[in-house]
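> forwarded from #structure-qc
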């Protein structure tokens, strides 16, 4: 479902994410929950900027996910997930949500 954040909140988050050149695209959505609906749970889904010719390890993805969790201030509880490879189906779901895509590059 749409994140429901104000334009200012999205801008603050986007500016932080722009500091990570490894990010190709990022999507922010809100998870629909049954309990504790007054406490939003967000999902930051991201694609990495990895050239096809460059060797890539699962460790690099895990390190980036960890850095995003440690170095970025989120508007609430946030799950961070890479939507490359096996998670492509989740990427399609995020793309379908209105205003989910964050503008990382000008």
């Amino acid at each position: 479902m749409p994140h429901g954040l104000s334009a200012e909140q999205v801008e603050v988050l986007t500016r932080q994410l722009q500091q990570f050149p490894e990010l190709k695209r990022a999507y922010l959505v809100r998870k629909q929950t049954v309990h504790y609906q007054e406490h939003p749970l967000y999902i930051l889904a991201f694609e990495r900027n990895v050239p096809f010719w460059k060797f890539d390890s699962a460790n690099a993805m895990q390190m980036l996910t960890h850095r995003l969790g440690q170095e970025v201030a989120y508007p609430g509880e946030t799950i961070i997930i890479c939507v490359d490879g096996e998670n492509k189906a989740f990427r399609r779901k995020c793309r379908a949500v209105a205003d989910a895509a964050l503008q990382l590059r000008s």
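QC bot note: The beta strands are 23-31, 41-48, 77-82, 101-102. The chain has one domain: 7-102.
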